[in-house]
Structures are given as structure tokens and as C-alpha cells.
Amino acid sequence: MDDGTMTEQAACAGFRAAAVAAGLKKRGGLDLGLIVCDEKAAAAGVFTTNRVQAAPVILSRERLGAGVCRAVVANAGNANCCTGQRGMEDARAMARSAADALGIDPEEVLVASTGVIGQPLPAERVAAAMPGLVKKLSPAGFSDFASAIMTTDLVPKIAVETTVIDGRTVTVTGVAKGSGMIRPDMATMLCFVCVDAEIDSGLLRRLLADGVDRTFNRITVDGDTSTNDMALILASGRSGAVIAGEPAESAFGECLTAALARLARMVVKDGEGATKLVDIIVEGAKTAGDARRVADAVAHSSLVKTALFGQDANWGRIIAAAGRSGAAIDPDRIEILFDDVTMVADGMGLGPEAEA
Questions:
Q1: Peptide bond before 247: cis, by omega within 30 degrees of 0?
Q2: Are residues 98 and 130 in contact, defined by beta-carbon separation less than 8 angstroms?
Q3: 13 vs 39, 69, 172, CA distance in Å?
Q4: CA separation for the pair 354, 356 (Å, rounded)
């Protein structure tokens, strides 16, 4: 399995990407990125559930109603959130400048922003940088794009997965950013996925939503859900593979979810102040909902986090979190393991020897 970090690996048939420095980040560097499909792509997305939503979220959600897209333009350094009517105008201007430079319909351009909340987006800088951005478009441009959307991230995040459907290789290339404001309830970051299969936009959205629920919606760093979260997916159809019916849908869905899962783990590992990457696995619950409630309670517990940071096997904090989760629990049947070491059996600790 490749990690998608090499430029030549981070490609997807029918797509080109690029990034430039438009002067949007205070510290300088790449901050404006563009992904373009050579022809109309089937498109879908999922968005933040935060009631406070940035202008790019509102605009992109509206435009995705058509189920098609030609380009996505994204910036870092400015969230274009809580900026009123001007924010919507700037988001539309951002899309229009990309459309004009590409010679396409502005309605087929989606936008995304990340960065500081409450400051007007300098749309004139975006417009000035757009011609140069379009000239840089390349199938190998995803690495630059990944760097351009970083804010407090320490490393760019790219994942590439492939599967074979009806004898044709399908490639899923995903790029994400996220480090702070990481909490489930969509994605709590930006994510852009390109696939070279042919697929209906409605099915694409269902598979994306399912994949996000199984990956990004199960991670947390600080418990905060952002105002700008979105996960967008575009399908070019260039591979010739058609995703319709079984077993194609399942094979593609698992490939997509695998890419999203790798990106989700990268986000947690790169979380602001993070020193540990921990998997919380709940087994034996009466329902999937109960399992999720227990896992969330443990993951969001500040006391559990401090114990993990200090490498203290304080399982009491874990069992207390599970007990207040609201899940149906039999305290006398609880077991707690750290990796393969059993710390608690039948609701009771196994003593200092187990914790050594």
C-alpha cells in the first residue's frame, strides 16, 4: 500500500491540480489551490453540521444540487466565515475568477476556504493569482495542492488507493487538511477526493456519506466541530470502469473508505498538540449506537486523554467514561484491554501486576 506522498503517485486520470502563493497566509507560502476535471465530473459532498457555516460551505452545497462539477478552488489563511453578504459575494467571485481563467461555467466551480474566522477574504488577491494558478495545472499537482490548504497542519495529507472493477483499475486519490477543531459530525476538516470511475452522483454521495461516517465522523482531537468542514468527491469516468450494482458498488465503496480512513488517521496523528494516536475499539455492545456512545465518551474525556498523555494505565477513567455514556452496560461484564494486556475483567481490576 503506497502512502500517496510521492507526487507521481498522487494522480488520478482526468484530473489536474496546482497551487500558488496568493498572499493569503500571514507566513507566506502556497495558499491557493485548484483541482480541475478535464470534462464534467459527477460530484457529491458532505458538509459541516455546525449551525454557523462559512460562505464557501453554503455556496458549494447549493451548487452540488446539480450533481456535476468541473473545478474546485480552495484557499488557506482565511475562512471567509462570519463575513456577511460580502462573504457570499467573495465566494462567488472566487469561483468566477477560476471559471473565467478556465473558460467554464462558474456554476460548475465549487469553493472551499480554511483559516481565520471573521476576516473578509481578499478576493482581489485570489483573482490576481488565478491566471498563474491555471497555467501550473498538472496531473502531478496534487502534492502542491495538499500543501496549499494546510493551516496549523505540520504535514500535507494525501492518500491513494486502487481497486479492480470489471478488469479495469480504479484509482481514488484523496487530499485533506486538518489539525485543530477536530471532532466528528461530518469531517471537521477539508477533504477532496478524485476518482476515475463513472458513477451516478446520487450513488456517489451515498457512498461518500457512508465512508465519511465510518472514518472522519469517528475521529476527535479537541472536540470542536468547525464552521468550514466539507468533503467533496468528483468522478471523471476516465478509467472506463462503471460503478453500478454489485459487486462494483461494494468494491468501490471499500476502496473509497480505505482512502478516507488513511486520511482520517493522518489528521489525528497531526492534531494540534497530539503525542499519541489511539484506537478505541468497543466490542460486545447491544447495538452499534451503544458502541459509538461508549467510544465517544472515552475519546472525548479530558481525564482519559491526560492519562494517555502521561502513559498512566488509569483504567478507572475509562470505565467511568463508559458508564456515563448512556449506553446499556452491565458493569459486572466489562473488560478493558490496553493492546493485548487485560486490565479489567468482569468489572474488576486485575491488580498492579497487570498495570506494570
A1: yes
A2: yes
A3: 11, 16, 10
A4: 6
Residue 62 and residue 95 in contact, taking contact as beta carbons nearer than 8 Å: no
Distance from C-alpha of 172 to C-alpha of 10, rounded to nearest angstrom: 9
Least trusted range by pLDDT, from 113-127, 161-175, 242-256, 273-287: 273-287
Q: What percent of the chain has pLDDT above 70? A: 92
Looking only at the bridges linking them, the beta strands covering 168-177 and 198-199 are unpaired
Write down the pTM of the prediction.
Answer: 0.85
SS3 (DSSP) at 329: coil
Give the torsion through C-alpha atoms of 101, 103, 109, 114, to 10 deg.
-10
Q: Hey, which residues does 345 pair with through a beta bridge?
A: 348
Q: Is the dihedral of CA 20, 25, 29, 30 positive or negative?
A: negative
**Active-site choice (151, 171, 188, 227):** 188
Number of alpha helices (DSSP H) and beta strands (DSSP E) in the chain: 10, 13
Lookup: cell for 46: 458532505
Question: Could you give the CA distance from residue 190 to residue 232 in angstroms, rounded to a whole number?
Answer: 8
Q: Name the pLDDT band for 8 (thresholds 50, 70, 90).
A: very low
CA distance 273 to 321: 22
DSSP 204-240: HHHHHHHHHHHTGGG--SSSPPPSS-EEEEEE--TT-
pLDDT tens digit sequence for 311-350:
888 998 999 999 999 999 999 999 999 999 999 999 999 9
Q: Which three cell numbers stand for residue 180?
A: 485543530
Q: Can 5 be counted among the known catalytic residues?
A: no
Here the cell at position 299 is: 475519546
Of 103, 88, 100, nearest to 127 by C-alpha is 100
Per-residue model confidence as pLDDT tens digits over 89-143: 999 999 999 999 999 999 999 999 998 899 999 999 999 999 999 999 999 999 9
Length of the chain counted residue by residue:
356
For residue 164, what are the contacts with CB-CB under 8 A and spacing of at least 6? 170, 251
